[in-house]
Amino acid sequence: MAVYKKMVEAVFVVGLVVTVMNVWGGVSVEGAISCNQVVSAMTPCATYLLGNAATPAAACCPSIRGLDSQVKATPDRQAVCNCLKTQAQSYGVKLGKAANLPGLCKVTDLNVPISPNVDCSKVH
Predict the structure, then answer these.
(1) How high is the mean pLDDT of the chain?
(2) What is the pLDDT of residues 45-95, one digit of tens each?
(3) What is the distance between the alpha carbons of residues 46 and 9, in angstroms, rounded to a whole number?
(4) 3-class secondary structure for the chain?
(5) pLDDT tier at 6 (50, 70, 90 boundaries)?
(6) How far is 61 from 57, CA to CA, in rounded Å?
(7) Which residue has the higher pLDDT, 15 or 78?
(8) In whole angstroms, what is the distance from residue 104 CA to residue 98 CA?
(9) Which distant-in-sequence residues (6+ apart) come within 8 Å of 44 by Cβ?
(10) How far is CA 123 from CA 12, 20, 77, 78, in A?
(11) Of 48, 58, 57, 122, nearest in space to 85 by CA
């Protein structure tokens, strides 16, 4: 089972990197935080976000808190929102688990909605 989880994580990461490269080729998002940074921070949370784990992995929350500490202003939150919106749709992230992650990890600035319907330009 551990091998399966590692494989799922590896496939998730590779898929995210490919998608990020495709997305960044055609989308310009203002903000100091890149989608690559967001994806890197979320990678330890993949098994939880995909529904394969009941709780986030030990490395998940420290990684999320590190990203949270980089979010300084509205453009950062909007950049994170746009990235998460795209990634969540592409990889079947469980939206309920994604919504719980900021509370579980005790983050404040990174608390952006993750939904296919969110208008990230209205995130402040």
Answers:
(1) 80
(2) 999 999 999 999 999 999 999 999 999 899 999 999 999 999 888 888 999
(3) 6
(4) CHHHHHHHHHHHHHHHHHHHHHHHHHCCCCCCCCHHHHHHHHHHHHHHHCCCCCCCCCCHHHHHHHHHHHCCCHHHHHHHHHHHHHHHHHHCCCHHHHHHHHHHHCCCCCCCCCCCCCCHHHCC
(5) low
(6) 8
(7) 78
(8) 10
(9) 56, 57, 59, 60, 63
(10) 26, 21, 7, 6
(11) 122
pLDDT > 70 fraction of the chain, expressed in percent and rounded: 75
What residues contact 5, with CB distance under 8 A and at least 6 apart?
Answer: 47, 52, 53
**Whole-model pTM?**
0.70
Give the integer Cα–Cα distance in Å for 107 and 119. Answer: 21
